[in-house]
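Appendix B. Chain record.
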Amino acid sequence: MGLLRGRDDRTPRVGLFVDGPNVFRDEFEVDLDEVRAIGDDEGRMTLARIYLNEHATPNLIKAGEARGFDVVTTSGDVDVRLAVDATAAVVDGQIDVLAVVSRDTDFKPVLERAAARDVETIAVAPGEYGRSDALQNTAQRSMTLSDG
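Structure tokens predicted for this chain:
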């Protein structure tokens, strides 16, 4: 479990942000229950979001919602929306642990900003070959989803 922080030494508040277009790809067999379990294992999940573009299938959206994720669909750049929302959660003090599920190095500044604010950071790769060295080296901890 992550570090105990926050007022009254409560269980850490976790923000789990999933980069859909970079994670839900044919080469990765991502299990949404496994993704959700990462956040649950770290503390009290306060934000669980999957970010998707306008090409996401209705089945993927339904699967995310069925597992308790807020599904954010955007016609713009998914990376920008996720980065802005994750950074806002950190700056607004909504979370104690930030887990970013992606293989995209664009999220390196988000992890750096979170760590500078004393938020624990976790980079989660969708598969062994989908790992980003930049994210892994920036985050305080890293994990890899199992391959199917």
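Further analysis of this model is presented in Appendix C.
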